[in-house]
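During data preparation, we tokenized the protein backbone, and the record follows.
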Amino acid sequence: MDIPSDRRATPPIGTRADRSAEAPETDLPSIVIERRVEWPDTDAAGHYHHSTVVRWVEAAEAALLRRLGLAHLFGSTPRVHFEADYRARLWFGDLVRIELGVTRVGAASLHYAFTVRGKGDEEAATGRMVIAHSAARAPGATPWPAEVRDLLTKAGVQPPEMLG
């Protein structure tokens, strides 16, 4: 798959280059998980369907939040932005690695960057996702509780979740 020459590679997750200028210099959390391309993940062309990346990114987010002890946030963090650049094909049975890292913690939002890697460490997809915090029954976004914000800005790299 040819990538236009004007596209720049996504900086490695967890590096200063992938963080916005507004992000404080802290040890923002990140995680790596592995998955296999399953038959339902593919489309009529035989490679992974674009929507599969969304599921993998959300699986990495779930693993990260569980590791941080923040599983109680499920149901109160709607997605407000998702974008992806698809760079290479992945085929049924391929082992993929999903790298997800927090790049910015706002007053009531959280920015992630992700990279999906295939064979030979090739970038198959890169992008970002933004979520908002919305407390139960709140009409809109609500600030992160102090203890949650503390974890989201200082937890650092989490152990990987690799397939056996």
Remarks:
- The longest strand covers residues 95-105.
- Residues 1-25 have pLDDT under 50 and may be disordered.
